[in-house]
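Handout, page 2. Input:
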Amino acid sequence: MKTFPSLLIFFFGILAVQAQNHSHTGAQPLDYPDIEGYKTLKTDLHQHSVFSDGNVWPTIRVQEALRENLDAISLTEHLEYQPHKEDIPHPDRNRSFELVKAMEEAAAHDLLIVHGSEITRSEPVGHSNAIFITDANPLLQDKPEDAFAAAKKQNAFVFWNHTAWHRQSPKGTPILSDFQKARIKNGELHGIEVINTVDYSAEALTLALEQNLTIMGTSDIHGLIDWDYTEKGNHRPITLVFAKEKSSESLREALFAGRTVAVYNDLLVGKEEFLKPLLKASIEIVTAEYIEDTQVLKVELTNISSSDLLFENQMEYTFYSKSPVFEIPAGATETLQIKTLEKKSSITVKLKALGCFTAPKVQPVVEWEVPVN
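Output:
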C-alpha cells in the first residue's frame, strides 16, 4: 500500500508526464472538409472575457481554440457593459484583443485573431457584433446609429446577435425593427446569428434568407468551453466559413459574400449552395460491391466530419437489414446494403440529411455517384 507521500509523488509524476505531452488537440478537435474552390475555416466570432462580462482572462480563449482546432476567433467585448470594471478598470476597449493578438502561441499555430466588439443596447436596437474593426473606442457612442456608422467607417462586418433571446424578445422570436431595417438598407448590418449557444432560431434563418444576411453560429461563451459544452458531450457552436484561403482578408471577404454554414453538434444550417457541397464532401465512399451471388449492393460510407449525420433513404431502392433512417457518427463508417434488383455498374446514392436545414423545415437531399467494383 502506498504511503501518503508516495501517492503525492505518484500524482505529481503523472502531472509532469501530462505536461511534457501537452497538445493543443483536445478531446474534441473539430474537423470539416473543404468544398470545391474553397477552404473551410472553423470560426467562433462571438466570445467574451473579463474585459466585459466573461469569467476568464482573454488568453484562455486562444488556448481553448487551439485545443479544438479552430482557424479564427474574435473576442467581442461589450462596449457599454463592463461589470468587472472595479477590478479591471481599463478604459481602452481594445485591450482584450491586444492581449490575444500578442500571444506567440496563436501566431505559431496560425490562429487568426479577428478584432471585434459588441454594440450592446436594449430593444429595438438589441446586440450586434462588429468584427474586422481597427479601433473599438470610436464605436462607443451615445446614439446607437452613430455606433453602427462608426463601424461602417472602419469597414466592419456586423451581425445581429441572439435575435430570439427572451430578454430581447419575450415571445422567443426575432423582431425585425425599423432600426434593423435602416441598418440593412445603409449597409451597416450584414449577418445574423441563427445559432447562439444552444439555441437554433428557425425564424432567424427566415430573416437571413429574406434579407440576404450571412448565416452565423456562435458560442457566445462567457465561462469555460469545457464546462459549458465539452463536459456535457457537446462541441461549441461555430460558423464554417468558405474562404479562398486561410487569411484574415479572405475570411472577411467570404463573410461579406455569405459563404457560411452554422454548426452545433449534428445541426447544420446554411444556404443550399454551401451546405450540400459540405455534406457531400463529409461522406467518403469507401467501397461499393455486390455480396457474392446476390443483387444486394454493399456500400460503405465514412463520415469524415466532426458532426454526427442523420440520413433518410431517398433512392428508389430499399435497404436490406437496415432502417431507411440511419446515423453515421462523426469519424465512423456505416454499411448500406442496397437491393438494386439487378446488378448495376454504378449507382446514385441519394440521401436526405435530416439534421440539416437550408430553410425552416427544408432538409437538403444529397447525391453521390458511386461506381461499383
